[in-house]
Amino acid sequence: MTEKFTAAIVEKFGPELVIGELELPKPGPHQALVKLLASGICHTDLHAAEGDWPVKPEPPFVPGHEGVGEVVALGEGEHDVKVGDIVGNVWLWSACGRCEHCRTGWETLCNQAEYGGYTVDGSFGQYMLVDTRYCARIPEGANPVEVAPILCAGVTVYKGLKMTDTRPGQFVVVSGVGGLGHIAVQYAVAMGMRVIAVDISEDKLELARKHGAEYVINGRETDPGPAVEAYTKGGSHGVLVTAVHPNAFRQAIDMARKGGTIVFNGLPPGDFPAPIFDIVFKALTIRGSLVGTRQDLEEALDFYARGMIKPTVTECKLDDVNSVFEDMRHGRIDGRMSIRF
Ligand code: NAD
Ligand code: ZN
Ligand code: ZN
Predict the structure, then answer these.
(1) What sign has the CA pseudo-torsion 222, 270, 185, 199?
(2) How confident is the model at residue 2 (pLDDT cuts 50, 70, 90)?
(3) Where in the numbering of this chain does the Enoyl reductase (ER) domain appear (predicted)?
(4) What is the DSSP string of 182-238?
(5) Which CATH superfamily is domain 154-288 in?
(6) What is the CATH topology of the domain spanning 4-151+292-340?
(7) Among residues 28, 7, 37, 64, which one has the least CA distance to residue 138?
(8) Model confidence pLDDT, tens digit, residues 119-170
(9) Is 154-288 the same fold as 4-151+292-340?
């Protein structure tokens, strides 16, 4: 008889995941079987379940790439984790390690990469597999439910902020104060940046203030471009967009200072009209940024371990995943929802 475990499964693209049973997988070479303690719920999981992006996962699959759990079995070969260690799965589940991107410190761009909860089953279940060469090592004593969001939201914005090239004392706008954005505010403060937060909900702006934003803008009521221009006397040096609406991407160009750098983290489906004149005359740099490397992840986790950042987390159960997705669609979540198993 094969052993079974419970998971939330995308059987077809659409609003409802099915809570069902799957066969317990056996870890292959370089793999570990992990018993989940917690998993964050990222907006990417919702995009995955709805088949939002041009490159789609293949149902049936289990989403989730902010999973924290205990290693219970190891596959063949050498591993630098052992049974009993607390590890995590991440979006960059594995990469080839040999291509140009991998060799030059851009493993996140590897064409052979596997993505946790997308091309490989993820953390919305009692068990998951990780590749022990790429999994996260969770700092000792971390609260699993609280540290989980660092594994995607945290590392993504930590890397994204670095990619804005903003220096201590300069302004950075965090546009979108959801799961990613509320942690971005904290990293930016910890890095010595002056933080301006933009969202379309007052609750999110309140959270941004609590985490250290010095100026907040409700994009539903105030046009963020002129407001940032006036507050910063010329625009923000860096802009990090984590929002889930294309309007925010357009507004980033208005909020940036001359010579500034805009980084896109958010991934709403669609596009936005980009004003060529403004981009040229302000000599803007606009870049995309995708999660982070293993090194970025280690650094991002270290900020947490040293108490420099603390995700705002609400606990839920695996069975709640559909209602969490419903709240996420309507922007009703404060910080991150995190499943406790
Ligand atoms: P979330 O749902 O927790 O937060 C989204 C936030 O955007 C909410 O606070 C919402 O109020 C806000 N928002 C919506 N419209 C807005 C607007 N017009 N202006 C300003 N704010 C607006 O989502 P999340 O988990 O933080 O993820 C955000 C996005 O980042 C998703 O598209 C997700 O797929 C993407 N993501 C990208 C990466 C990456 O590596 N680039 C990694 C993780 C997530
Ligand atoms: Zn994510
Ligand atoms: Zn590679």
Answers:
(1) positive
(2) confident
(3) 14-339
(4) HHHHHHHHHTTPEEEEEES-HHHHHHHHHTT-SEEEETTTS-HHHHHHHHHTS-EEE
(5) NAD(P)-binding Rossmann-like Domain (3.40.50.720)
(6) Quinone Oxidoreductase; Chain A, domain 1 (3.90.180)
(7) 37
(8) 999 999 999 999 999 999 999 999 999 999 999 999 999 999 999 999 999 9
(9) no
> What's the CA gap between 188 and 265, in Å, rounded?
15
Distance CA 16, CA 47 (A): 12
Question: For 172-217, how does the pLDDT look when each residue is reduced to its tens digit (9 = 90+)?
Answer: 999 999 999 999 999 999 999 999 999 999 999 999 999 999 999 9
Domain boundaries, the chain: 4-151+292-340, 154-288
Query: What lines the ligand 1 site, CB under 6 Å?
Result: 42-44, 47, 152-153, 156, 175-181, 198-201, 204, 219, 242-245, 247-248, 265-268, 289-291, 328, 331, 333
